[in-house]
Design brief:
This protein is an alpha/beta fold and 357 residues long. It folds into 2 domains: 162 residues, Nucleotidyltransferase, domain 5; 171 residues, Nucleotidyltransferase, domain 5. The protein contains 12 helices and 11 strands. It has a 6-stranded mixed β-sheet. Helix 2 runs parallel beside helix 3, helix 4 packs across helix 12 and helix 5 runs antiparallel to helix 9. The radius of gyration is 20 Å and the shape is globular. The two termini are 40 Å apart. It binds 5'-O-[(R)-(carboxyoxy)(hydroxy)phosphoryl]adenosine (KG4) and zinc ion. The site of zinc ion (ZN) has 6 residues, from helix 4.
Length: 357
Amino acid sequence: MRILGIETSCDETAVAVVEKGRALLSSIVGSQVAFHAPFGGIVPEIASRQHLLALQPIYRQALAKAKTTPKDLDAIAVTVGPGLAGALLVGVNFAKGLALGLNIPLLSVNHLEGHIYAAWLEDGPTPMDKPGLPLVCLLASGGHTELILMRGHGRQYLLGQTRDDAAGEAFDKAARVLGLGFPGGPEIQRVAETTDLSAAKKERFPWARMGDSLDFSFSGVKTALRRRASELGVGPHLEEGSEVVANLAAGFQNAVVHALVEKTLAAVRQHNARGVLLGGGVAANSLLRLEMVRRSPVQVVVPRPDLCTDNGAMVAAAAFFRAPTPVSLSTRMDQDILPGLRLGLDSKDVPRHLHSA
Ligand code: KG4
Ligand code: ZN
């Protein structure tokens, strides 16, 4: 089963060819970052226009790299949500055209489920076999920060989510405060790595505990950073290599990573999970990866950094493994975009006998 996966929900135009949900024959990702960077964030109109320009050439590259012709494809998978409406429309319409022209199924994929299945794309046992179920999945990206309990294909339960900014969004806004580039996550990480740990400890920021809840909140740490930066006179006049900026970046990164690790491990304890799975752009953060592995009592599965950020392969993998539903296995020309799509039943709906004692 050879699936072509298409991803256009945000600012990456991505197409991949994946065999049996695991073997990556090709994965081409066209980043729009240069078009959005001057605005310090993603401009939806620009995103749609760039997807329109880039999708066809990236589709051709993905087929060529995979040494695949369109008639070798068994299905087309596409992200239908969540994401930017205009951006999703470009991918979904392109996918419909292909599926119709080739007379093969169109599989609709939830972007968040895609981030989970990125971990299926590598060699070795699947996360389902090792560490095994249930898995606590931390999905942290520019638009989402969610803790999901996975008990099987298509059996996901929402345990917690951010009440304000997504973790990636917080990184992006913090980078703007510090006069760093976009996207902010990799920039904060790069600058933070120029300071040593003892220096980073000079700047401490709070993280939101939120009682027993597994929800997150990043607005407090963002405000604390803004206040401290203004106290220290951080502004565009400071040199890029400024130690003050590096300490602030490191302190901010520590606080966000700490919150993500604490809540994930609380979820593991509450649900007797056998493993932790990381996904989404923020999972590319090296401190988060290190800290989660260092502190977790159970095995941590983290896809390669390039599979954590948006890509088409995760979409193809999710389409292959997700429990077949009438929607997923039919050619749905009436498939609409679902910009506000969510993942997982509410945790209060976890069947009682599945709750850990
Ligand atoms: O999953 P993704 O590629 O797109 C969305 O679905 O949003 O995530 C992008 C987000 C951005 O906010 C970016 O700043 C963040 O992931 N990000 C990182 C790192 N790499 C990307 N955040 C922290 N550290 C990183 N190394
Ligand atoms: Zn994403």
